[in-house]
Design brief:
CATH topology of chain B: Aconitase, domain 4
Strand order of the largest sheet of chain A: 4-3-2-5-6
Number of helices of chain A: 13
Low-confidence stretches of chain B: none
Helix content of chain B: 25-40%
CATH superfamily of chain B: Aconitase, domain 4
CATH topology of the largest domain in chain A: Aconitase, domain 3
Oligomer: heterodimer
Largest sheet of chain A: 5 strands, parallel
Strand order of the largest sheet of chain B: 4-3-2-1-5-6-7
CATH superfamily of the largest domain in chain A: Aconitase, domain 3
Number of strands of chain A: 18
Strand content of chain B: 15-25%
CATH class of chain B: Alpha Beta
Mean pLDDT of chain B: 94
Largest sheet of chain B: 7 strands, mixed
Structural class of chain B: alpha/beta
Radius of gyration of chain B: 15 Å
Distance between the termini of chain B: 23 Å
Order of helices and strands of chain B: EHHHEHEHEHEEEHH
Structural class of chain A: alpha/beta
CATH architecture of chain B: Alpha-Beta Barrel
Number of helices of chain B: 8
Chain lengths: 411, 172
C-alpha cells in the first residue's frame, strides 16, 4: 500500500511514517500567510522568518474599518520584525504573490486564512484555507492538524480546443460530479503538459468552490521552469508512490470540452455549456475579470485579444483587476491595459476588489454579472438581489462585447 | 461543555455558504455586530427568532466558501450544535476550532421537521428526533477534534498557555 503525494507531504511534516484517509495528522507548517489585518493581543509567535504579511482584499483601504485593520497588520509586522511584509505599493492577492515571489514551494505546507489558499497546490505545495482561530494557533505554535480525506485522481488527456480554457475544465468537474467536500484532488495526465502555470493556478484556486480540501498538481517541467528562478527557500518536490491509492479516478478528455458557465448562487451541480446559456440571451450589467482565479497576465492577454478593435456593449460595464502590482505593470508594458481601456473597460489597481464585493464594482439590486473571479454566491459581489454567473475570461470578454452571456466561440 | 445536546431544530438546505452567514460588508466587524447580518440574504428575520440552545440541522456541504468563521457566529448565538449531512472542510475546521459541537450525519435533513426537538450525542454520533422518535447514527469527528471542542476551541488553549494578552480583541 503506497501513499499519494498529498499523504506523503503530510507524513513528511508529521511524526507519522504513514498517513491514511481518516487520520488526524499533526504537522509542522512551513509558511504562514496573513492578510489585511492582525490581532493586537498576540505576545509571541513561532517563527517570524516564515511569516508573510500582505494587503489584498481591501487595498488601498476603502473604509475606516479596513484602514484600522491594515494599521494593525503594519504594527504586527513591526512588532515581530517580519521581513516578508508586502506594503501597499508592493501588494497583490495573497495567492498570486506567494506564487510570483517563490514563497509557495513544492513539497511544503503553507497556510493562509483565505479559502482560496488551495491555489498554491498548482506549485505542488500542500495548501488550504484556514480559519481565524487556527491561524492564530499556527502563528503562535507553528503546528496544525489535518483531517485526511480520500483523494480523487483527475487525469487530463488531450488538448483544449480554441476558446476553451482551464477555467472551463474546473467548471466542468462540479457540474458533472457535484461537490468534493472532505476530499482531495490530485491532477495528472498528458494533457497537463499543455496547461501553463496560470491555468493550473486558476484550477487549483477554484478547487475551493468544489469544496475540495487540497488540490495538488505534480512537479513537472512546466512547474520546474516556473519555480526554480524565484524560490525563496530550498524545496523538495513530492511524487506519489507507484502503488499510491486513490478513492476514484476521473478522466477528462480536454479536446471534447466546451466553454462552461456556472449559474448563480451555488457551484455543485449548477453548470451549463456556454452555447446553451448563450441561447437565452441573458442581459448583463457588469463583466468582471480578476481575483486569485483569473487576475493573471494570461487572463489579460485573452481579454485584450477578444476586445482588440471592439467595444463594450452600451449599457454594460467591464472591470478588469490585476492580481498583483507586477501583473499590472506587465499588462501596461504589453499594451493590454490600453486595448482594454480603448474598448471601454475599467482597469483597476491590484486587489480582490469586486470578487468579494469589497470595493470597486459592487452590484445593484436586480443586476446581472458575468465574472471570471472566484464565487457566485448570493450577495457575494454586492446586492443579494443580484445574479452572478461565472465563466472563463474569454466568455466574460465576449459577453461584455455583446451585452448578453455569450459563448466566446460565437463572437 | 458536554458530549450531548438537546434543542429545538432550525433547518437549512444544501450548500449553505459562508457569505450567507457573514456577508462581505460585515467581514471586519466584531462578532457581536456580525450576528445581526447572519442569513439576512436567504432568511431575513431569523436572527430575531433563534434562541440560545437551539440546534442547526443542515444539508450537504455546510459552510462551503470562505474562511469567515461561521463557528464563532453560531457560538455567538448560543447554538448548542450543528448536525449536517456533510461539512465543507474549512467550515468544519472553524466550527471545531471555535468549540462548536459538530456532527456529520447522513440522512439528518429528512429525519427532522423544523421545530422538532433533537437529542444528540456528538461524540458517539447518536441522533434522536424526540418529536417523532426517529433515530440515526452520524459519523462523529475523530477524538482529537472532539478534544478541541471540549476544550472550548483553540483560542482558549493559546490564552491558557500565555500566547495572548489579557485584553480581548474581537477580530475575524
Amino acid at each position: 500500500m503506497g501513499m499519494n503525494a498529498i499523504e506523503k507531504i503530510l507524513a513528511s511534516h508529521s511524526e507519522q511514517d504513514v498517513v491514511r484517509p481518516g487520520d488526524v495528522v499533526m504537522v509542522d507548517v512551513d509558511v504562514t500567510v496573513q492578510f489585511d489585518s492582525a490581532r493586537a493581543d498576540v505576545l509571541k509567535i513561532d517563527n517570524p522568518e516564515k511569516v508573510v504579511l500582505l494587503h489584498d482584499h481591501l487595498v488601498p483601504a476603502p473604509t475606516v474599518m479596513a484602514a484600522n485593520a491594515a494599521k494593525r497588520l503594519r504594527e504586527f509586522a513591526e512588532r515581530f520584525q517580519i521581513e516578508n511584509y508586502f506594503p501597499v505599493g508592493k501588494h497583490g492577492i495573497s495567492h498570486v504573490l506567494v506564487a510570483e515571489e517563490g514563497i509557495a514551494l513544492p513539497g511544503q505546507i503553507l497556510v493562509n486564512a483565505d479559502s482560496h489558499t488551495c491555489s498554491s497546490g498548482a506549485l505542488n505545495c500542500l495548501a488550504r484555507g484556514m480559519g481565524g482561530p487556527e491561524m492564530l494557533y499556527i502563528l503562535c505554535k507553528g503546528q496544525t492538524w489535518y483531517l485526511v480525506g480520500p483523494t480523487t485522481k483527475v487525469v487530463l488527456e488531450g488538448e483544449l480546443s480554441h476558446r476553451v480554457y482551464p477555467r472551463d475544465v474546473i467548471h466542468y468537474l462540479p457540474g458533472t460530479y457535484g461537490d468534493f467536500a472532505g476530499q482531495n484532488l490530485e491532477w495528472y495526465g498528458d494533457g497537463l503538459a499543455n496547461i501553463g502555470m496560470d491555468g493550473r493556478l486558476t484550477m487549483a484556486t477554484i478547487s475551493a468552490e468544489l469544496s475540495a480540501e487540497f488540490s495538488l498538481f505534480p512537479y513537472d517541467d512546466v512547474l520546474a521552469e516556473y519555480v526554480a528562478p524565484r524560490a525563496k527557500w530550498p524545496y523538495e518536490p513530492v511524487f506519489p508512490d507507484d502503488e499510491a491509492e486513490y478513492d476514484q479516478v476521473i478522466t477528462v478528455n480536454l479536446s471534447e470540452l466546451e466553454p462552461q458557465i456556472v449559474l448563480p448562487d451555488r457551484v455543485a451541480w449548477n453548470t451549463k455549456g456556454a452555447r446553451e446559456v448563450g441561447e437565452e440571451k441573458i442581459k448583463i450589467d457588469q463583466a468582471f475579470i480578476g481575483s486569485c482565479a483569473n487576475g493573471r497576465i494570461s487572463d489579460f492577454a485573452i481579454a485584450a485579444e477578444i476586445l482588440e478593435g471592439r467595444s463594450i456593449a452600451p449599457g454594460t460595464r467591464m472591470i478588469v483587476t490585476p492580481g498583483s502590482q507586477d501583473i499590472l505593470k506587465e499588462a501596461i508594458k504589453l499594451g493590454y491595459v490600453e486595448t482594454l481601456m480603448d474598448a471601454g473597460a475599467v482597469v483597476t489597481s491590484s486587489t480582490c476588489g469586486a470578487c468579494f464585493g469589497g470595493h470597486m464594482g459592487l452590484l445593484a439590486d436586480g443586476e446581472v454579472c458575468i465574472t471570471a473571479s472566484t464565487r457566485n454566491f448570493k450577495g457575494r459581489m454586492g446586492s443579494p438581489e443580484a445574479s452572478v454567473y461565472m465563466g472563463s475570461p474569454a466568455t466574460v470578454a465576449a459577453s461584455a462585447v455583446t451585452g448578453v452571456i455569450t459563448d466566446p466561440r460565437d463572437l | 461543555m458536554t458530549t450531548t445536546f438537546t434543542g429545538k431544530v432550525w433547518k437549512f438546505g444544501h450548500d449553505i455558504n459562508t457569505d450567507l452567514v457573514i456577508p462581505n460588508f460585515a467581514v471586519l466587524m466584531p462578532v457581536e455586530e456580525q450576528l445581526q447580518h447572519c442569513f439576512n440574504a436567504n432568511r431575513p428575520g431569523w436572527v430575531d427568532e433563534v434562541q440560545a440552545g437551539d440546534v442547526l440541522v443542515v444539508g450537504r456541504n455546510f459552510g462551503v466558501g470562505s474562511a469567515r468563521n461561521i463557528g464563532a457566529i453560531f457560538h455567538g448565538f448560543g447554538i448548542a450544535g450543528v448536525v449536517a449531512e456533510s461539512f465543507n472542510g474549512l467550515g468544519l475546521r472553524n466550527c471545531v476550532n471555535s468549540g462548536l459541537p459538530s456532527l456529520p450525519c447522513a440522512g439528518v435533513l429528512e429525519a427532522f421537521e423544523e421545530g422538532d426537538v433533537a437529542e444528540v450525542d456528538w461524540t458517539t454520533g447518536t441522533v434522536r428526533n424526540a418529536t417523532n422518535g426517529m433515530e440515526l447514527q452520524g459519523s462523529p469527528v475523530p477524538p482529537q477534534l472532539q478534544q478541541i471542542v471540549l476544550g472550548g476551541g483553540v483560542e482558549s488553549v493559546l490564552r491558557a498557555e500565555g500566547y495572548l494578552a489579557e485584553t480581548t480583541v474581537t477580530l475575524r
